[in-house]
Fold:
Amino acid sequence: MADDKSIIDNETNNEVPFSGALENKASENSRRKFLGQAAATSAVIIAGSASAGNLPPDVPNWSRTLGKPVNTNPYGVPSKYEEDVVRKRVPWLTPDSIASISFTPLAEINGMISPNGLAFERDHGGVPTIDPKDHRLMIHGLVEKPLILTMEDIKRYPNVSRIHFIECPANSAMEWKGPQVGRLQFTHGMTNCCEWTGVPLKTILEEVGVKPEGKWILAEGADSAGMSRSIPMEKALDDTLVVFGQNGEALRPEQGYPLRLLTPGWEGNTSIKWLRRLEITEEPMYQREETSKYTDLISPRDPNREELIGKAYMFSWIMEAKAIVTFPCPEKPLKGHGKYIMNGLAWTGTGKIKHVDISFDGGINWHEAELNGLVLDKCWTRFSFPFEWNGEEMLIQSRATDEHGYVQPTIEQLREARGVSSIYHNNAIHTWKVNKNGEVESVQV
Amino acid sequence: MADDKSIIDNETNNEVPFSGALENKASENSRRKFLGQAAATSAVIIAGSASAGNLPPDVPNWSRTLGKPVNTNPYGVPSKYEEDVVRKRVPWLTPDSIASISFTPLAEINGMISPNGLAFERDHGGVPTIDPKDHRLMIHGLVEKPLILTMEDIKRYPNVSRIHFIECPANSAMEWKGPQVGRLQFTHGMTNCCEWTGVPLKTILEEVGVKPEGKWILAEGADSAGMSRSIPMEKALDDTLVVFGQNGEALRPEQGYPLRLLTPGWEGNTSIKWLRRLEITEEPMYQREETSKYTDLISPRDPNREELIGKAYMFSWIMEAKAIVTFPCPEKPLKGHGKYIMNGLAWTGTGKIKHVDISFDGGINWHEAELNGLVLDKCWTRFSFPFEWNGEEMLIQSRATDEHGYVQPTIEQLREARGVSSIYHNNAIHTWKVNKNGEVESVQV
Structure:
């Protein structure tokens, strides 16, 4: 084969656009070499550097013809070959598509930034089309000087840009009673992580002058649901932002254009979208979405705790530590034996991720993963772990620990605390079962 | 006016979607309050908190009707009210739109991330449409084991995600001889800053085994221009990446989909897009785009230095420290007297930005700006500076200093060193003249 003048891709048997002598069977030794960690299993090895030094005469069509003009799309769009990488709904999950959810395709996401076109959305009355010239933010109630601000006013305040995750408290809710959706996009895709630009709410509250008895803030959206939540003053004065920018550009419509609240690390729906009103109050307002919904119903299995029956946790704001393996996963199975790099995402609403542990045997043995890239406050954190797969079944788990020592619980621990009637705040350790054929499914162990 | 039942926006005189008593003349004292830094000049003050405490009965139309279904666009798009925020070409700058440039609208960009749809592009033979299944990367030349990799192979290596700017060395080139373009988008918009995900080139070079005499790498693109540059081995082994991801998703077509090189901090065109070939060589290959183009022709004005006439700097790779004020700017004039927050971007290919200074008088007096948010290596860094404007003319400048003490030069200093025939590497201090009507123009002083 060493003198063959064409190169055959050893996976597809198609002629590939390089020529020269080749050895079309990849060397297992060479594959194993790369840092002793993983292997490029379909790599074609070119035998002999002499002929390989020649320029490849067989060039692909796209090198032979002029490309598209610059700025064919003044606002750029992804390659047509990425058209399957989109947000998706779970049709049976909500009665209609107005008050619904579309999920981030986490298996296809790299790094710590969710691109704006793929960031999950959860709306309660559809996505309003708001003209920013006519949008107003009113701040009133227990204040010295109530104000109505235009978007131009808001942009004139000092602003900050911070990278934070948002997670719907219903993320992974479908998994409380066992696996119901077979894809990472749907088990964990109610989260995104963007660079948000906005004005610290503290700045605006200093401008209006909060009266001493003002301890809560009702935040209300301009959508048809009038989505509203009560925010305690401590959070408002801490790190809450009034946001107009998302990953460098204006907020996307489904993320609250032109203005939203951002309560970093808290239940996504407290980050009120299409923000139109902030009313400073003495007490929480007990809105629909913090009483009949977004509370955690307790159904104790221990009969000695029946005093808890019918009770619920309210104002369980913080999204606690959670880690999920994004490769391998149902959408990204293993393809053949060999070395791989496991990848995943971890986050916590309490601050920074301290470490992430990996198990291959359903939680019996644990190994510390490497945290990759920046480890920021209330932000997606990447982790990885090299492994070799020889075709055996595996039960892959990941377990996050936050900077305060909180350890992500098992589903059994969550059920022990809350029973099985809960919907929100399922941050349980998740299990991917890798089958002998390399395919991955969601299981509970 | 205090008992009026409607609220009139004091800028537009339109009725705005809130009701209650009002004082439609904004209080200058209140405006000046916010942190003593800036003012929301069109804010409507609601007089009396009693009536302001009522819910606003006059709600906008978009609150009265159901919004659009979730996932109307499975791949999301910006609001229709942002349709003017796009990349643009300068028609006279290039003979056609195939080998051309489109510029980032920097005046509209927040934070440190360029959204993928707005990131500048510079192409030499148009944007090829590459099927990732058929794309290959060949690594050959002075190596022990030449390789041809598929995209799947490349994604199997350990990868990293890093936020870095890219800047075309021709950025601000049009300003060498004086202002020629009147917008920030065109004076400085040949830069973007994204989170890039890819494999360290070092990893791939270790896999192929570089021979001791291999000191350079020719990187070649699969576009019709066969765009190619010679990269020294030191840079390749340092922080160069083979990139497939951009802000969390696949590279955009105009950024090199499916694969590009990234040489952080270096001339943008060394980050070869549509990367198809890496040839390890003993010497640089002296390609078209590093000899006849992308060199810095010297035309000394000092007759004692005529030995330099006809000579040029070659391989001037590093994009040195540069800062630009993004507000105010021609696209974003001042609107009325009062307090403002100046905003800007700084970056350097040598590492981190150390500080940025601001002048209001064309470089006579300087004031240190505040650096905002993360200060990362070879990455856009935000700065801000509060100021009050009382209607006088101003000559606003910004001047970056990098972590090694290098100070951004004046245009005079650059001309002293290189004359006026140079095109590339104009990192001169830029001047915005603010006129008495608040409008801003590009000048040289």
Helices of chain A lie at 28-33, 49-52, 61-64, 151-156, 184-188, 201-208, 233-238, 411-418. The two ends of chain A are 50 Å apart (CA to CA).
